[in-house]
Amino acid sequence: MLLVIRIIVALILIQTLRFKFTAHPDSVYIFTKVGLEPIGRIAIGIIELIAAILLLFRKTIWLGSGLTLGIIGGAISMHLTQLGIEINGDGGTLFYQAVFTFVLSAVLCWFYRKDIPFLNLP
After folding, report:
1. pLDDT tens-digit profile of 5-44?
2. ∠ CA 47-107-66 to the nearest 5 degrees?
């Protein structure tokens, strides 16, 4: 089951990259609205790609899920403070997808918490 969750989160992260890296108008709108266009859009896309790759390897799941929590936590914060739940008539799809991805990443982080080297958990 955890493998399925890892793949789902990685696929969600990867599928959003085409919007960021091709400067899709919705992506440009979002990052312009929060003052991060274009550098932030590209940088966050690169970090999402790294997180997705890390999720695919057993020893780095903890790092990939942690990165994903940070990235998606930021996205959720932007939705709640600057963007709003609905963007360009999407019915809240991006927001709800972010919440779903955040929850799945939190589950992964919890189950792989013992792999975090600097926590030294038993």
Report:
1. 999 999 999 999 999 999 999 999 999 999 999 999 999 9
2. 25
> What is the value of pTM for the model shown?
0.93
Domain boundaries, the chain: 2-115
**What distance lies between CA 108 and its chain's CA centroid?**
13
> What CA–CA distance (Å, rounded) separates 60 from 112?
9
Cβ neighbours, 10 Å, residue 85? 13
Burial 13-23 (b: 16+ CB within 10 A, else e): beebbebbeee
Neighbours of 10 (CB within 10 A): 20
